[in-house]
Structure formats: structure tokens, C-alpha cells
Amino acid sequence: MATQLSDPELIASLQARVKELQAENAKLLSQLADCHSHEMEKKLFGPDEKGVESDKGNRKSEEKIKNMPGYNTRFMSHHSKRYVALKVMYFGKRFYGFASEAQMEPTVESELFKALEKTRLLVGDKKESQYSRCGRTDKGVSAVGQVIALFLRSNCKISATDNGKSGVAALDEQYEGEIDYVRVLNRVLPNDIRILGWCPVPVDFHARFSCLSREYKYFFWRENLDILAMESAGNKFIGEHDFRNFCKMDAANVHNYRRRITLFEISPTDVRYNGNQLWVIKIRGSAFLWHQVRCMVAVLFMVGKGLESPNVIDMLLDTNRILRKPQYSMASEVPLVLQSCEFDDIKFTCSSDAGEVLRVHLMNESQIYQLQAAIFHEALLNCVPLSNDQSLLPFQGTKKKVSHVPLMSRPTEPSYEERRAKINSNT
């Protein structure tokens, strides 16, 4: 009788198999791209023009390809390619999230692929490039440490181990002489997206499944919040727990709601406005569920306002006792930032020239936002007349007191089992 694997062993086994299939897929895609390349050469140039070695002939051939409708870099067989990880920063305010599957525009992903196509760095389409992303941030969420991986055109010579066929540059190739991916892409990306660095990675690398941990930051104004109570409550998240009461449940696709939180911190920043200090919550974990961080923060704010006890975290984490998630609103998406994604042996690099241009760009953007904040503050002073003995504390006299319904007394959402039963009954 076969021994039944535990959940961690099964997950590790499946992840290993995924990596094997990805490596095999990359090899087949390289062969396919090579076949497409030879077929296109025959259609474009015919037998008489094929094999022309002169510079004039090569330039003429390349121009004929470039001028074709639907020109694609995968047909440029004289270019090598390499599998590359890119570190991406973006400000999420105007985007409908990171991923482009929702058919809402613009998304960060759609803007990235527009830039890749414009710079002709893309090798084939998204599927053929073996594209992967570390996370799918929501609408309005920002990131300074998102990571994607895909095949990109390369200046590196084809390694002898590749037999001159796949055009895949070996990982031990030197960085010198390689395309400056950061500089090239940042020149065409919109101002609210930037590439921070790049790194060659093995073909079995997957931006999502190879990630060891992710770290998020959530910024908030302290106002009258009880920071010590929030810290006491937040520390209860550390460890492995079932977080189904702290997420938007996707019962059709997600069946394991256990996640491990390895770090929780609350600390002040050096930003102040009218006597109010900006604080930040830092949360690190191996992986996160849909809307998990925003749900965690929402409950922490209830604790900070004295509306809930820190022990409410223990109750919501006890899914044997609390079978259904109480209904509550998530925290705003705007202050949430994907801070970093951690991988083994991945060191992102950026040329000194590209780094200086990036630094100047971010400094200019920061000054623009500071000017806008000054204008809003000036408007506030002019639109809200104050007598000499009044102070201008944020939101003073504007907040309505709303009676709080304890979480454990609120209507609840369907449980995972109830959702699955409904899905099964409809199939």
C-alpha cells in the first residue's frame, strides 16, 4: 500500500515537477522558435538570398523583416536570447492591478509588454517567452520589488554547449557587452513604471514558485490609534495559520488557506504633517492570499481604535471555532506597497549610467508630488478659514461617529465548505 504524502511533501513534490516541466517547455519553445525562424527566412528571401554574408545583404534582409506587418523578434535568428529576471517598480494609482487577464486597461503588465515590444527585446509572445510574475497586486497597489522573468533578446554570443541552435546564452556569460535592459526599457516606459535591475536566471526559474518570501508595507497616519494594542494583535499573526478569515476566498481555485507569516513590525517614519506622524506596518511571509494584507490591516485598525480586543485575532485564526468570516471592509489599497521578493542566488544589477538616470527620475517625481501636496495644503488654508485660537489638525470635526458592531456579532460570509458545495452542485 502506497504511503500517503503529507501536505508539505505533496506541495514540494508538485513544485519540483513544475520546475521540470518548465525546463522541458523552455527547450521545446527554443526549438519551435528556431523552426519558425528558418521558415520565415525561406518565405522572405528565397533560396537565392539565403546565406548572404555581406554587411549590405544582412542590413537589407533585416530591413525586410522589420518592415513586415506583425514583425516579431522571434524571427531574428541571428540574435541570442537569455532567460532574465527583472525587478519592477510601479505606482499603482492609475492601474487596474498588475496582471492583464482582467481585460481592464491600463495594467502594469500591459505597459511592460508594450515597452518590450517597442524595444524589440521580446522573444516571441508572452507564452513563448516563458513569462512568469511573482505576484498579482490589486488595483491601486504599488510595488518597489515586484519581479518578473522571461526570455529576452541578448548580445551574448551563443554558447558552444547550445550547439548554435537554441540561441540561449549560458548563465556564466559576462555582463559586459550585454544589452542594458534597465536603460533601454526605462526610456520607453511611462513615468509611473521603472525597471530597477536585472539578473540572468536558469530556465527552471519561476518568479512565483521560486520566491522564498514576500514583504509588504502598509502606510498610515497614527492619529489616535493605540499602537501598542495594534502591535500586540499583529504579533499573533506570526507563524503558520489558516487565514481564510483574513482574505477574499476563492473556493474554486484555492483549497489550502494556511500561510506562514515570519515577520510583523509597526514603526514610525520621519514624515509628519500638522502634528500627525506617518507610521508603517511591515509584514513578511512565504506567500499571501487574495486581499490578505488589506484584511489583516483592517482588523488591526479596529483594534487600534479600541473597537476590538487584540484577542479577536486569535478568534479569527481559530477556523474550527469561527467557521464563517464576519463581514467587514478591507483597508484601502492606496497605502499598500509590495516592498520586496526574496530569491536564492538572485542579485539584480543596474549599470551606473542607468542607475543615475533612475535616481534623477525618482527625485524629479518626488519633487512633483511634494509641490502638489503644497498646493493642496495652500488650498486647505484658503478654503477653511480658521480663527487664531484654532488648530488645523487633520480631519478635525469632519468625522462622523459610527456605532461599531463587534466582528463576532456581524453577518458572516459562506464557509469554504459551503462555497465548494455550491460549486459542485452547479457542475
Helix percent band: 25-40%
Q: What's the total helix number?
A: 9
SSE ordering: HHEHEEHEEHEEEHHEHH
| Share of β-strand residues | 15-25%
| Anisotropy-based shape | globular
GO biological process, one term: tRNA pseudouridine synthesis
GO molecular function, one term: RNA binding
Keywords: Isomerase, tRNA processing
GO cellular component, one term: nucleus
Write out key terms for the chains shown.
alpha+beta; TruA/RsuA/RluB/E/F_N; PsdUridine_synth_TruA_C
Which helices and strands occur, and which strands form pairs?
Elements: H1 7-49, H2 55-66, E1 80-90, H3 108-118, E2 132-133, E3 142-154, H4 181-186, E4 193-200, E5 213-221, H5 227-234, E6 239-242, E7 258-273, E8 276-285, H6 292-304, H7 312-317, E9 336-342, H8 352-383, H9 416-425
Parallel strand pairs: 3-9
Antiparallel strand pairs: 1-3, 1-4, 2-3, 5-8, 5-9, 6-7, 7-8
Helix pairs in contact: 5-6
